[in-house]
Design a protein that fits this description.
36% of the residues lie in helices and 28% in strands. The protein is α+β, with helices and mostly antiparallel strands. Strands 1-2-3-4-5 form a 5-stranded mixed sheet, with helices on both faces. Strand 4, helix 3 and strand 5 form a beta-alpha-beta unit. The relative contact order is 0.14.
Length: 139
């Protein structure tokens, strides 16, 4: 088992089968291009690999804002549905916390869909707090 940043096209594409479980609208043929575009804006992709396959994947960025100072924001966090309850999510989450600390972040945050009850239980078990409501509008 190892945790590594997805930097090569091969590593990025290795993350697609897991990421598409969270983001089913994504197309494999466009995945690397989309991730590369987001990387220009600071996006990073990290994955936990077991037996040469991604078992858990996260996409994240580091931001600075007036409300929170410097923080790590998790865009995406998903464990392969066939590999859940094996602590892979917890290990990847801990890696993200350590990455944030090593990059002098003061906070780590994410948004989670209101229907994702299992994810909410996981985040609360990781000592996260529900700190705000997120509002959006389609344009």
């Amino acid at each position: 088992m190892s945790i590594q940043l997805g930097e090569s096209d091969f590593q990025i594409l290795k993350c697609f089968p897991v990421m598409s479980q969270l983001r089913p609208h994504l197309e494999q043929a466009k995945f690397v291009e989309q991730v590369r575009y987001q990387m220009k804006e600071g996006y990073k992709l990290v994955f936990l690999e077991v037996e040469q396959q991604a078992a858990a994947v996260a996409g994240f960025r580091i931001y600075t804002c007036l409300a929170s100072g410097k923080f790590l924001y998790i865009d995406d966090l998903v464990v392969d549905e066939l590999k859940r309850s094996q602590s892979y999510g917890q290990q990847l989450f801990q890696w993200l916390i350590e990455y944030a600390i090593n990059h002098e972040c003061k906070h780590l945050s994410l948004d989670s869909g209101v229907q994702r009850f299992a994810a909410h239980r996981f985040y609360l078990m990781q000592r996260m707090s529900i700190t705000s409501h997120h509002f959006g509008i389609e344009l």
